[in-house]
């Protein structure tokens, strides 16, 4: 429960996953319809992360009907980023380890992202970081964090 409220506070975006309650993964058309004007950002981010970081896998994943679906981008079966579609935007979520946290705080990320990382609760799996993406400027911190995750 703490993660859910933290995510809303961190991203400023309380909208639910666009595919909550859906038993099957969404189609490309469904993702495009849900994201609306943010769909080009989604496709751009996926393409750039695959090309620049050599990400070699992607799969839709759901933790249950009440959580919806997220696209996991992977490198050698290692989850790098989870992309959760919202209505009109999406969330890029990471679970980063201690080395990645240290690298992120020195990486030139925007101050709000560094603060989010420093303030986030630590879990055994790592530190959760969620960035709402609805405009082009939101892509840069996502790409920086993805690179840090790959390198650490």
Word description of this protein:
- This protein is an alpha+beta fold and 152 residues long.
- The chain has one domain (2-151).
- Helices cover 41% and strands 22% of the residues.
- It is built from six helices and five strands, in the order αααββββααβα.
- The protein has helices at residues 2-11, 28-35, 39-53, 98-105, 111-119, 139-151; strands at 57-61, 70-75, 78-85, 90-96, 127-133.
- Strands 1-2-3-4-5 form a five-stranded antiparallel beta sheet.
- A hairpin with a 4-residue loop joins β3 and β4.
- The chain is globular and about 40 Å long.
Summarize this structure as a short list of keywords or feature phrases:
single chain; 152 residues; alpha+beta; five-stranded antiparallel β-sheet; 6 helices; 5 strands; 41% helix; globular
In a nutshell, what does this entry contain?
41% of the residues lie in helices and 22% in strands.
Q: Major beta sheet, specifics?
A: 5 strands, antiparallel
Number of helices: 6
Q: Give me the count of strands.
A: 5
Listing every helix as H and every strand as E from the N terminus to the C terminus, the arrangement reads: HHHEEEEHHEH
Catalogue the unreliable spans. Answer: 1-13
Structural class: alpha+beta
Strand content: 15-25%
Q: What's the number of domains?
A: 1
